[in-house]
Amino acid sequence: MAKLAIRVNGKRHVVKAERDTPLLYVLRNELDLHGPRFGCGLSQCGACTVQADGKAIRSCVTPVSGVAHQEITTLEGLGTPEEPGAVQQAFIDNQAAQCGYCTNGMIVAADAFLARHPDPTEDEIKRAMTPYLCRCGTHFRIVEAIKAAAKSQAPGERR
Length: 159
Description:
- By secondary structure, this protein is an alpha+beta fold.
- The protein folds into 2 domains: 2-77, Beta-grasp domain (Ubiquitin-like (UB roll)), CATH 3.10.20; 86-152, [2Fe-2S]-binding domain (DNA polymerase, domain 1, Orthogonal Bundle).
- Helices cover 33% and strands 16% of the residues.
- It is built from 5 helices and 5 strands.
- It has helices spanning 23-30, 86-93, 103-116, 122-129, 139-152; strands at residues 2-8, 11-17, 49-52, 55-58, 71-73.
- The protein has a 5-stranded mixed beta sheet with strand order 2-1-5-3-4, sandwiched between helices.
- Strand 1 and strand 2 (11-17) form a beta hairpin.
- The longest helix has 14 residues, at 103-116.
- The mean pLDDT is 94.
């Protein structure tokens, strides 16, 4: 086991892990963060999505050593239950979840998308969210939530 320093949600952590350990396992098992979830383990569903320097990545296939010099943001870094971030609040307001398993990854991905595209069209939102799977079929509510989050954020404002 190696000791690796990583920055997660604005804090530096030293973790013990093999360099090729998936970031997801380090976040959940070492740092006790449960925003990113294990879904498929193959980078297909998106439940494990986190941000690395503001870009949405799949933590289930990203080695922890590959992000050692990047800022990692998980769902927990976007807001709190008492003060949810704009995208989190929009998902709540639009009831954009049924079982909720995919929701964390969708919120993190939508936050990263809106940081780059603050005034997206519905088609741009649909294209951006295509790689994320919601088995409950709430995609239309997810799109509405992302549209609402875009409208609620002032230009240049994030979270």
